Amino acid sequence: MSRALILAAALGLAPALPAFADGARLSAAWDAAIAEGDTLAPAIRADINVIAYHAAVARLCEGFPVDVGKLAAAGDELLTAAVAGLEGEALLERHTDLLIDLGVAHGLFLAEGSLDLQNFCAEAAAVRDDAEFQSYWQ
Questions:
Q1: pLDDT digits (tens, 9 = 90+) for 27-54
Q2: d(CA 45, CA 78)
Q3: Distance of alpha carbon 2 from alpha carbon 6, whole angstroms
Q4: 24 lies in some domain
Q5: How many domains does the chain have?
Q6: Is there a domain that residue 136 lies in?
Q7: What is the pLDDT of residues 10-34, one digit of tens each?
Q8: What is the largest CA-CA distance in the chain?
């Protein structure tokens, strides 16, 4: 599991996502994606990862269609929180950073899932069946 996901779960900011087998982690890529100087709050970073994870599972695994309304609402809420109080150039920079970070997280989850697709999808099914996990799948 990525450092950001571990942090999010430890802080109780996001539901715990499945832990991937050691061989299916892209630790260096995750570390680079969350480099020093990250301006996003841990709660926002956790939300990015949750949204990206759901989207990656939906693309890689059968039987996980995304609830577009729920996912759009989560994205809107994420964006609103991330840019609160910002104006002008700072607003544009944060908005850009957020979209890039969301795309990077999505790509990393796609890559990790592709390394061990069967396990990735099985873990997603187990997570979806957990009553405490709030999912964006239908």
A1: 888 888 877 556 778 888 889 999 999 9
A2: 9
A3: 6
A4: yes
A5: 1
A6: no
A7: 334 444 455 554 444 688 888 888 7
A8: 46
